[in-house]
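Pipeline run #58 for the internal structure catalog. This entry was flagged by the ingest filter as a single-chain record with no existing model, so it goes straight to prediction. Upstream metadata was stripped on purpose; only the residue string is passed forward. Reviewer on rotation: M.T. Logging verbosity set to normal.
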Amino acid sequence: MERMRAGDLYIADDPEFWRLHQRAVKLADDYRKADVAADPNAREILEELVGSLGKDAHINPPFVVDYGANLHLGDRTFINFNLTALDVAAITIGEDCLLGPNVQLLTPTHPIDPQPRRDKLEAAEPITIGDNVWLGGGVIVCPGVSIGDNSVIGAGSVVTKDIPANVVAVGNPARVIRSIG
């Protein structure tokens, strides 16, 4: 666990990781089954699942996480259906963010060399999304990426490198096309 949190290579099929993952799967399923609009227990389930949940933050179910505990949402952030958050490393989403449907936030990395992959070694790099960021539907954010405050990432984009604040970025790989303001 220490190696995983430090971003070093670690053995991914460790039984303790499996136990933590199964806990997250159960809680995400409980949240999916709850009436998130009317059931006060729904928010409690989400709070138990994620590392931190800001005031009035919301995730539309269904969504998938590896562990949940490494996912942190700021105040008033809204995440639409089908989020995939592979939170092996920390995923930090700022305040007032909007994430469209089918967004993928992917922190795991795998060795290029085939033998360490066969040995089930992986690592992870954190993802940081600033305040007031909008990720359009189907955006994929790769390991180690930071997206600056107020930026917009166009639908279907693949973000492979850091994006500065106050810009619009689109494409695969995502490229800045203009400034905002």
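catalog note: Helices lie at 2-6, 15-33, 40-49, 114-118.
catalog note: Residues 2-179 form a domain with the UDP N-Acetylglucosamine Acyltransferase; domain 1 fold (CATH 2.160.10.10).
status: ready for reviewer M.T.
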